[in-house]
UniProtKB/TrEMBL annotation:
It is a multi-pass membrane protein. The lineage of its organism: Bacteria, Bacillati, Actinomycetota, Actinomycetes, Micromonosporales. It is found in: Membrane. This is O-antigen ligase. Its main location: membrane. The chain crosses the membrane at residues 33-56, 62-79, 91-111, 123-140, 152-173, 212-233, 240-257, 263-279, 286-303, 359-388, 400-418, 424-443. InterPro entries: O-antigen_ligase-rel_domated, WaaL-like. Keywords: Ligase, Membrane, Transmembrane, Transmembrane helix. It comes from the Bacteria. Residues 246-374 form the O-antigen ligase-related domain. One of its GO terms (cellular component) is membrane. One of its GO terms (molecular function) is ligase activity.
C-alpha cells in the first residue's frame, strides 16, 4: 500500500458513486479530465492565439475546441447514470446564473434587431460562453483528487514559463519566434502581435498571446502558483526548478510595458501577503524582488524608468484620455437598455468603439443583470476557495487556496483596465482556475460523497 504521507489522505477514500459501481479516486486512467485540461493549457500557451482550425472563427482555437468538448462531456455526465456526479457544487449555480444572463441578453438583442455584424458577434459570444463554462464546470466536478489538481497547476506554470521565454526572446533579440509555432493544418486568423514601440529604444511584446496586456496579466496569474511549488514541491530539485520558472515568468511581465500587468502582479502579491505568507517569506521575496529589479535595470536599461513614468504621468497618457471620452457613449447606451443591455458581443469595434473595460463592456452589452452574474461568478469562486482555505489542515493546501483567491481578485481588478474576457488566453486561464476553486471546495468538504463526486474515466 502507498505510504499515507505521499498522498493527500482524502485521495485514499473510495466511495459509492453510482448504483453497482464501486471505485477509488486513486484509480490510474489513460485519460481523465485533468489530462484534458493539461493538454488545453499546452495548446493555449504553446500555440499563437490567432492560430485556428481553418474556416472557423477565433472560437476555433484548438484549446477552445477542447473546452467545448468538456462542456459536452459535463452535460453527458449530468444526464447519464453511468457518468453520474453526486453531491452539491455551488459553482454550478453561479455558472447557471451567468448562462441565463447571457441568454436573456441574447433575446433582448434579437428583439432590438441586429445588423449582420452584431448578430455574428452575438453568436460568437454565445459559443465562447459555452466553452468558457464547460471548462469551469469540468474543472470543478471532474478532477479526481489533489494529486491531479496539482498536476494541472504544474502544467500551467510550465506553459506560462514557455510563453515567457518566447516573450523574452522577442524582447532581447527583436525576433518573433512565435511565427515558427504555426502547426501544419491550422491557419492564422489574423497577424501575430507586432512589436509596438514604447519608450526610448524599447518595444512591447506579447509572446504567444493576442495583446501585450493579455501577455502580462496571464503571467501575473501564474506567479503565485510558481511560488507555491517553489516552496512546497516534494524534492529540493523540484523546488529549485519551479523557483527558476517563477523567476522567468516574473521577469517577462514588465517587458510587455503594461500598467495592467504591473498592477496585476501587485494585486496577486498583496492577496498572498495578507492571506498566506509569514514574515520570513515576505522578507525573502522582498530581497529577491529588489535583486531582480537591479538586474533588469542593467540588462534592459530604461525599462523600469518607462514603467515608472507610465504611472506618474497617467493624465498625459492618450490611452487614458481616450477611455474617459468613451464614458458619454456608455451612459447613452446604458440609459437605453439598463437591465439586459444591447446583446452580448454586439459592441463591434469596427462599428462603434473599443471599450477597454470589461465591467463597462458587460454593463453595455448585458446590462445590470450581466454585471451581477459576472460578479457572482467571481465572488462564488472567492468564497469557495476561502472556505477550502479555512477547512485545510496543511500549510501547503492553505497556500494553494490563497493563490486561487489571488487570481480571482486579480481578474476583478484588471477587468477595470481592459476588456479581459475578450482575450481568450486570459479568459480560459481564468475559467480553469475558477473551476479549481470549486474543486478545492469539494476536496475539503466534510462529507465523503461530496469529496468523491467526479465523472468516471472515458478510457480504461
Amino acid at each position: 500500500m502507498t505510504a499515507p504521507t505521499q498522498h493527500h489522505p482524502v485521495d485514499l477514500e473510495p466511495s459509492l458513486i453510482a448504483p453497482g459501481t464501486y471505485t477509488s479516486r486513486r484509480l490510474r486512467v489513460r485519460l481523465d479530465v485533468a489530462g484534458v485540461i493539461c493538454l488545453l493549457f499546452c495548446l493555449l500557451y504553446g500555440l499563437p492565439a490567432t492560430l485556428i482550425v481553418p474556416a472557423l472563427t477565433f472560437a476555433g482555437r484548438p484549446a477552445l475546441l477542447l473546452a467545448l468538448a468538456l462542456f459536452a462531456w459535463w452535460v453527458l455526465a449530468r444526464l447519464s447514470p453511468q457518468l453520474l456526479m453526486i453531491g452539491p457544487q455551488p459553482l454550478r449555480w453561479a455558472c447557471l446564473f451567468y448562462l441565463m444572463s447571457i441568454l436573456a441578453s441574447c433575446i433582448a438583442g434579437m428583439l432590438r434587431g441586429l445588423p449582420t455584424l452584431e448578430a455574428n458577434g452575438q453568436t460568437f459570444t454565445l459559443l465562447i460562453t459555452f466553452q468558457f463554462l464547460g471548462l469551469i464546470l469540468m474543472a470543478a466536478d471532474g478532477i479526481a483528487n489533489w494529486a491531479r489538481l496539482r498536476k494541472i497547476i504544474q502544467v500551467f506554470v510550465w506553459a506560462a514559463a514557455f510563453m515567457s521565454v518566447v516573450g523574452l526572446i522577442q524582447s532581447l533579440f527583436e525576433y518573433d519566434v512565435a511565427q515558427h509555432l504555426v502547426v501544419p493544418g491550422l491557419e492564422l486568423k489574423s497577424d501575430l502581435a507586432d512589436f509596438q514601440k514604447r519608450g526610448d529604444g524599447l518595444f512591447r511584446v506579447a509572446g504567444t498571446a493576442t495583446h501585450y496586456i493579455e501577455f502580462s496579466t496571464v503571467l501575473a496569474m501564474a506567479v503565485p502558483f510558481g511560488l507555491h511549488f517553489a516552496r512546497f514541491a516534494k524534492s529540493r530539485n523540484s523546488r529549485i526548478m519551479f523557483g527558476v520558472l517563477t523567476l522567468v515568468i516574473a521577469v517577462a511581465i514588465p517587458i510587455a510595458i503594461s500598467r495592467t500587468g504591473v498592477v496585476a502582479l501587485g494585486v496577486a502579491f498583496l492577496v498572498m501577503f495578507i492571506t498566506a505568507w509569514n514574515w520570513r517569506v515576505r522578507y525573502n521575496l522582498a530581497v529577491i524582488s529588489i535583486a531582480v529589479m537591479g538586474a533588469m535595470s542593467v540588462v534592459r536599461p530604461g525599462l523600469l524608468g518607462t514603467l515608472k513614468s507610465m504611472f506618474l504621468w497617467v493624465e498625459a497618457d492618450p490611452s487614458i484620455e481616450g477611455r474617459t471620452k468613451d464614458y458619454e457613449y456608455i451612459a447613452h447606451w446604458f440609459s437605453q437598455r439598463p437591465w439586459l443591455g444591447r446583446g452580448p458581443g454586439t459592441l463591434i469595434p469596427d462599428l462603434y468603439i473599443i471599450l477597454d473595460n470589461q465591467w463597462l463592456y458587460t454593463l453595455v452589452t448585458c446590462g445590470i443583470i450581466g454585471v451581477l452574474a459576472l460578479a457572482t461568478l467571481h465572488l462564488t469562486c472567492i468564497v469557495l476557495a476561502s472556505v477550502a482555505l479555512r477547512r485545510s489542515q496543511s500549510e501547503e493546501d492553505r497556500h494553494l487556496c490563497a493563490a486561487l483567491i489571488a487570481t480571482q481578485v486579480l481578474a476583478i481588478v484588471v477587468g477595470g483596465t481592459f476588456d479581459s474576457l475578450g482575450f481568450t488566453t486570459f479568459a480560459f486561464t481564468l475559467a480553469a482556475l475558477s473551476g479549481l476553486c470549486g474543486a478545492v471546495w469539494r476536496f475539503t468538504h466534510p462529507r465523503r460523497t461530496v469529496r468523491t463526486s467526479t465523472v468516471r474515466r472515458i478510457l480504461g
